[in-house]
Amino acid sequence: MTAAAAGPRRRPPSRPALLRSLRRNLTAYGFMCAALACFVLFAWYPMIREFLLSFQETNFVDPPRWAGLKNFETVLANPSFGQVWLNTAAFTVLALVFGYAVPFVVALVLNELRHARAYLRFVVYLPVMLPPAVGVLLFRWFYDPGPGLFNQILELVGLPGLSWLDSSATALVSLVIVSTWMNLGSGTLIYLAALQNIPGELYEAAELDGAGFFRRIRYVTIPQTRLVLLLMLMLQIVATMQVFIEPYLLTGGGPENSTMTVAMLMYQYAFTFGDWGAGGALGMMLMLVLMVFAAVQLRLTRDDRD
Amino acid sequence: MPNAVLRPDRPDRPVPAAAPPPPPGRRRAAARRTARPRAAPSRPFRTIVSPHRLNSRRGRIVYRAVLATVVTVFTLVFVFPLYWMVTGAMKTGEEIAQIPPTLFPADPSLEAFAEAWELFDLGVLLTNTAFYAAGAWLFVMAVDVAAAFALSKLRPVFGGVILGAMLATLMIPPMVVLLPLFLTAKSVPLLGWDLLNTPWAIWLPAAANGFNIFLLKRFFDSIPRELVEAAEIDGASPLRILRSVVIPVSRPILGVVSIFTVVNVFRDFVWPLMVLTESDKMTISVGLSQVSNQVTQNALMAGLVIASIPTVVVFFFFQRSIMAGLTAGGLKG
């Protein structure tokens, strides 16, 4: 590393441009070699390895063997395969219902306020800064059917308590609530930044044209933030489809598999059943689904640059 | 006129050379709690509701009502759970299980904290996490800054391709490559090292972060050419230029990257769960979750409070950098 960084010996500037360029390149690669090594080993190679893994039989005794589509067959034959994807999709959709429109509305309101802005921004982002494990374990206590905060609040307003994590009817929604609470802040702040970039003249012009409050949102705010809105939609889908920590710490996938997600099953394949190939195959499937969204996102970012 | 968040090519930061760190986001910076800062910006602040409307009698009443509602709801939704966590940690074992619960601890005590400290071995967990965070920070600073500098100022052949490949990693959903990444850490290709249960399993992948490269390169690009050329004419080597010209003017972005790196180590869960499995090597998040079922509720709450202190303190002091990084990137949710 150091040898390359030092580069060839310094030459007088009258030397041909070719040599200078060579020296510049050698120095540049010297500066980059550590980063390149890290990226090769821990970013680029794992991407290829994921592909290989899904087609290989991997145990830690023999070298990996080609397995064809066997891993995919194993995954598809899993009786809970369909359920797991449904759960993941349901989680994603529910998380969008709560977590996509709400931050935008919150940002709209925050942008109108002239007071307490610093406080509100701080507060809304606070849960994002907590380590996710802390947020999740805190909510596990809130969900306690006995002295847990949520049932106590329900009781206070005269409603019957729920069994939250213990019932397959409410477990998934409970996970969505934690997830939304923890992630609302980042969406809000990104929207807020977008709203602050809208030129005030547009609102003035809309007002002169007689547009009321909601039409100003409809015809000025939303078109002006369209790109951010679309991009956040894609980002959120990709992020929520990978949900892991909430089911891992709160329910372990239960009750009755109602919160088993794709990422959870992947983790189980590898670390519980030791079937790394099947885990890899499931990962590939998730990758293909997410790639569609990522491609849309990339496309949107590109369009913006024109 | 689309948003600056999504335009990495548009330098939305002032050029850093002349004046030392002018904070990004003029309006956000102005939104301090001083009396009437809104008059200061050159362009009048205009949002959906017109200022005229807001100043009418009815407008003022509605505004007050909305403001009060928003502040109350936000406090209840985002602060009250944390209040509940802190007070829960101060209650006794009986009081925390009591129905209905008490709003204030009857006899606040710090006993649960002492208990949690013992039970979870919090001293070890915190030291571990701080050690991992410090090492990750050093790695990112040394490795990513050098690479971004080379890509931005030395412009080698294939630099564009390399940058593209580095940024492409941001498109890969982290969960998908988790298993192969684990296998890589278990036995590093060609070298055969086993990084499991060593700090390297955190440090090396931390440096392979496309987002850092993106932020740093974009900032370095905005440093005026003349500054670098002047140093070159004076005979400064690239290393010298990096040290004496680029780094001093890049303090704001180095701050953002440092904060993100450190906070990420404290927040990360899945990766340390997989690679640091020995109980005396765990990070605080993983360590707490592993024994969370075997301790009393108030001790668990005390543990959670202690685990959240580092990131919350960092957030309290570096709010502006964190929010600037969030909106400047926009890429990574």
From TrEMBL, chain A:
Assigned keywords, A-Z? Cell membrane, Membrane, Transmembrane, Transmembrane helix, Transport
Any one Pfam family match given in the protein's UniProt record, by short name: BPD_transp_1
In this protein, which residues make up the domain named ABC transmembrane type-1? 85-297
Give the residue spans that cross the bilayer: 26-45, 84-110, 122-143, 163-184, 227-245, 276-296
Q: Mostly located where? A: membrane
- InterPro entries, A to Z: ABC_transporter_permease (IPR051393), MetI-like (IPR000515), MetI-like_sf (IPR035906)
What membrane topology term does the record carry?
Answer: Multi-pass membrane protein
Superkingdom, natural source: Bacteria
Q: Where in the cell is it found?
A: Cell membrane
PROSITE patterns associated with the record = ABC_TM1
Which family is it part of? Answer: Belongs to the binding-protein-dependent transport system permease family.
- Per its UniProt record, what PANTHER family does this chain match? ABC TRANSPORTER PERMEASE PROTEIN, DIACETYLCHITOBIOSE UPTAKE SYSTEM PERMEASE PROTEIN NGCF
- Name of the protein this chain belongs to: Sugar ABC transporter permease
UniProtKB/TrEMBL annotation, chain B:
User: What kind of membrane protein is this, topologically?
Assistant: Multi-pass membrane protein
Domain named ABC transmembrane type-1 is located at: 126-318
Ordered alphabetically, the record's keywords are: Cell membrane, Membrane, Transmembrane, Transmembrane helix, Transport
Entry's localization field: Cell membrane
Q: Does the keyword Hydrolase apply?
A: no
What's the domain of life for this entry?
Bacteria
**Transmembrane segments in this chain: where?**
61-84, 130-151, 158-182, 202-220, 241-266, 299-318
Comp. bias (Basic residues): 25-36
**Looking at the record, which segments are called Disordered?**
1-42
Q: Which PROSITE patterns match?
A: ABC_TM1
Name the InterPro entries for this protein: MetI-like (IPR000515), MetI-like_sf (IPR035906)
- Family per UniProt? Belongs to the binding-protein-dependent transport system permease family.
Protein name (Swiss-Prot/TrEMBL) = Carbohydrate ABC transporter permease
Q: What is the lineage of its organism?
A: Bacteria, Bacillati, Actinomycetota, Actinomycetes, Streptosporangiales
